[in-house]
Design goal:
With 101 residues, the chain is mainly beta. It is built from no helices and seven strands. It has one domain (2-79): Immunoglobulin-like.
Length: 101
């Protein structure tokens, strides 16, 4: 299991580095939770896990076919995304123009 942490305004790109060839792109399904995924066909070994709006966990099942051809042989791993609520860290105050009373 790969554990990843972010807040509910973020997303994280995960890159697979298999120790041998795989056939096609990674296959990702959401097992549970509020998150979503983004995948780009031009980067078949990458998946971006996107936090949901609710703090908590999302589990993603990532699979790849290692055999190719008509008969599949899948390997898999789970990504566990733990999401916290985004909070302000500063007030971002600035000085305005000075005015007469």
């Amino acid at each position: 299991m790969l554990s990843v942490t972010c807040n509910n305004r973020q997303k994280v790109t995960i890159v697979a580095s298999p120790d041998g060839p795989i056939d096609g792109a990674l296959r990702v399904t959401i097992q549970d939770g509020d998150g979503t995924i983004e995948q780009n066909p031009s980067t078949p070994l990458e998946v971006t896990v996107v936090s949901g709006s609710i703090a908590g966990q999302t589990h993603y099942l990532v699979e790849a076919d290692v055999r190719g051809g008509a008969e599949e042989s899948l390997i898999s791993e789970v990504i566990e995304l733990t999401v916290s609520a985004a909070e302000a860290r500063s007030l971002g105050m600035s000085v305005g123009a000075v005015k007469d009373k």
